[in-house]
């Protein structure tokens, strides 16, 4: 499989198409420490074996972790709007569970001002950007009161963005919570992997079986490392999309697990023919024919995506993903994009799929122009 995404990003494109050309100079210096080359990964202490596994995301949470963006070299004139969207997400989640937001000391005052008193702002864990799903630790439970965390060796999505601070976030968050921490035997991001908590994962080859993350590693080796890290036994692979966005097509923008053996796929309009629409249809087909780790046939629900001609944003790189929702205690937090009919239908679908939870739909258009969503900027800490 060719790794044509390994080269530098094309200038002038958003996160959906490589937001951070301005951040690459610093990224080059950071990659030696943060990218975890193959030899170092091979020697890394493996994630704890046994009963520890990453639970499905609708379990009870102790808190949600987030990060505060403050870099104009990354966001430019969009920074203020993106900060407002991050604050809106944090305040909304804080209605349902504690939110801990990592901020650099120089921008903590603004974070506290916009987020309000219900959000805890920490300055002891510095950050480069807001994508806590990718830089943060992946927490695991053992079903008997035990909690630990795994780091996925974040390397700026293949050294495409400065990440010297973000490369250390996973370990620092784990230290703050006082739980054991290990490094996985691969490079990846939390948004690149979905887990059902019962042994099954799904992921895109474009993101993980890629020389910009895991040079010299085969799909079989990467799958083994993923299963060890997540406490799983099976990976459902999708081809994904290479080189069109900084993540190389994270799975959490399209397909999610609802329960063991049950998944959801955001479907494009029948008239949509771009690479992401084709990718979504392929993901649905693969899941519909797949079995879970226990051998049962996957049940797959559909979540209809919006009409990009009817959403508020006219940015060609805008990510309008309802599927990039975040499940917290008692609520589902999702985006809404201005296609009134699709927004209403998505709310109804999520309410049906998550009975007993409040569905909150937020206007996060500024964050969406950066190619990300609510799930991308959150990381759950499950209750042990």
UniProtKB/TrEMBL annotation:
Q: Which PROSITE patterns match?
A: TAT
Can the keyword Hydrolase be found in this entry's annotation? yes
One matching Pfam family is: PAD_porph
Keyword annotations of the record? Hydrolase
Q: Which domain of life is it from?
A: Bacteria
Keyword Aminoacyl-tRNA synthetase applies: no
Supply the InterPro entries for this chain. Peptidyl-Arg-deiminase_porph, TAT_signal
Q: What PANTHER family does the database record attribute to this sequence? A: AGMATINE DEIMINASE-RELATED
Q: What is this protein called?
A: Agmatine deiminase family protein
